[in-house]
Amino acid sequence: MRPHWRRFFLAFTILAMLPAASVIAAPTLDPKRIALVIGNSNYRSFPRLANTINDRDLVAAALKDDGFDVMPFADLDNGSMRRAVKDFSARLQTEKAVGFFYFAGHGVQVDGTNYLIPVDSTPRDYRTRTAAAVRLSLNEILEQMAANGNDRLNIVVLDACRSNPLKATGLANIRHKLPKSAQFFIAYSTSPEDVASDGVNSMSNGPYAVALASAMRKPWLSIDRVFTEVHDYVASNTSLEQFPWHTRSFSGEFYFKRGDENDFWARIRNSLKGEDFGAFLQQFPGGRYARNACIRRLELAQLDKMTIEERHTPDLAVQLRTRIAERINICPEGVEGSGQKRTIFATSTDQPLTEADLDKLPCDDLWAARNEMFARNGYCFRNFEANRYFGNKGCSTTYDSLFGAATPQFKVLRSNVYKIQAFEALSQCTPKE
Fold this sequence. Notes:
There is one protein chain. The protein is of the alpha/beta class. The protein folds into two domains: about 1-25 and about 260-433, no CATH class; about 35-250, Rossmann fold (3-Layer(aba) Sandwich), CATH 3.40.50.1460. Helix content is about 40%, strand content about 10%. The radius of gyration is 28 Å and the shape is elongated.
């Protein structure tokens, strides 16, 4: 490239460049997880359901991937269903486990009580309260799962009401009063009083099971977000005819798929919700990004206290950092990096870099030269490679607060950063994450 074209390209790249600002800690172990998964298909007196056993297999496989000890059953009669629920509930109590109950099949409500239909039932069984009393109700399942003071989370998923065998409405809303100490998350594949889809002819699974299995496999997706994703997928893929529903009666958070610290951080690092960073700190209180998470949570809490006018000031990031400066000392100290003793340009924060300084540097040195300026100014690195290399020992500064400062010193820093980024673009350097 000719010199004058090279200078033109550098100048253009610098002007066009926008400011752009992981290893792994062991996660906290959950209690044991046990799942009872039932798919009833071959009914004797009700319409056969094509996909329920496939759905059982799909959900069971996802639960196994998430660390559940799965108890799978298919085509259970009344006695077998009762025994399966009894054995499952006994294990929850004995092993103090998180419980997950999934049922795919016919369901019906009688006088506001929900019943899960075994394969040997007949329509006559559900015509009166007396007859229905001998059949397995949702109320009985909830009571057994909560028995003996089990204080672990119990998750109940009813992928039922795929047809309308009794010409009545779908399952009723939850009316059963749970024990005060019971912790439940209860989900229906469709809204109360409505009917769910068993999938179109070309599908081997119902849309609810497909969405649920997929969402449960995503690392560090909270239980509420899992079922929000399920809701959105099912609504979209049934032309807005089926709307899943869920409710919770527990505090705290639960994750089906756990991952490492970097997985969690990658998901939340740009979040504007303080609770996301609080959840991160619960899982990784001494992790590589713990200081980042703590500072970011303080910033977002301060942001909530500011007026609309204050939030729209040009130096918002600087104001935030100033207001929380005295509270940063409550945050974890941060970790040392592996490359702190290596310096590319010792004075690059204060003195402008020239083209000759940067012309022969390889990509790794350009990257280190750009980031060492941030490290010297206390920047809390949020990406994997920079955090590993420079660390976050005692960091306190965000990217925006550095670039938002109006002092001559930081104007030099910004100019040098843009120059290095331009050379990285010229050299076609691969970004480090």
